[in-house]
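Researcher: Structure prediction, please.
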Amino acid sequence: SGSRLNEGIDPSFTECPEECSDSNRVGVEIDSELLEAECRSVAAEYCFPAQYHVRDQYGRDLGSMLDEAMIHALQRDIQAEGLDRIRAGAGGTLTYAVAAPAGSYYATANPNEYRRVLWETVRAADMDIRTDTDSFVGANIILGDPNFWEILLDLIDLDISMDTRVPGNGPGQADEVTAFFGVTRGGRYKTFLFSDMPEDTGIVMVKDDNDPTYLYAPWIPITDVGTLVYPKPRRVEKGMITLNGQRMLRPGRVREIQLT
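Model: Predicted structure follows.
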């Protein structure tokens, strides 16, 4: 028909044509875009006396501790970049006023009644996504900062399954992205709390491995670039590097909620 299938549904599209005439056809067009990988690197150093103290007093290896810290720093920055790009590329923004409107019913009602308006805003964002021509599927994950989740967690009748392990579980490599953008497991949405996310912000979005909303593409995963030992100053230097690209693919599947 020459138009995208998700731009509208015509029930007559698949009706059998007149005898000896062609059926309507469904086609797939594949486009390519250039995605440039950006470099991130971090370094650390320590002296041998410090290593001896950490080993003898605490039973830890200072080099391994710094390796973990460098990986964590790279993962946090990659994650922060992803969150910023998702927010900037969202297909729309909804707002929720934290303070109940003066003179309204909510001003004197049970505070949870007005807090529930935020949950209704989440559902409105979900419906926006469902009706967007770039989506037509419902949201399955919600991301938010502590202020955002504090309001929803006060609604004791809501069943929220919170994963607070990020960014320890990603994104940093491909398998970690799956943990970062987790699929719904028990409950309507899979939820994530980010303590370093911009304040008063929530994101409602679709996560689909087969048809990604947002792409995180590691070209070179987080890699140890080696260790240099300088005997004279008794100093050790270490470093990590990674190259990756990120891009919003389906903005219609994302809605931002701002607390005002």
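Model: The helical segments are 48-58, 62-88, 111-131, 146-153, 174-180.
Researcher: Thanks, that helps.
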